[in-house]
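Translate sequence into structure tokens.
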Amino acid sequence: MSEIKPDIEITMATELTEDLLMACQRLVPQLTTNNPPPSREQLIQMLASPSSFLFLARHRDYGDEIMGMATLVLYYVPTGLRGYLEDLVVDARARSIGIGESLLQACLEKAKQAGASQVMLTSNPIRKTANQLYLRMGFEFRKTNVYRYNLLQD
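Result follows.
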């Protein structure tokens, strides 16, 4: 695993704050243009879910501002407890200083403590730096087909 970076603080969100809402409004568009940032109500629902864990990153150079986030989802299937990593994003102003790695480490530690046997994620191939990070952190590339069915089709 990776070393602890003293300039980075990782916390798990337990309640909705204005800082968290504003961070989501700023960070989600940096991650995707396919989905809008969550509403206040959606964040409240996610934080209340016993299967979702939202990790937040702050860096000393940026004061109290949330500079990154990642969501770990833990779920049971017939073959055991699994983890899935979603929506890992680091503010463009603070990339390549260890925030993504620290968020990943926190998610993996939480999954391990919960007893998950594995953590999966998907990443767009054009995100070269992110994909290199996943490999460096010990994720294995899997040749598989990923399918999505859009339930919000017209």
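Note: Residues 27 and 91 are 6 Å apart (CA to CA).
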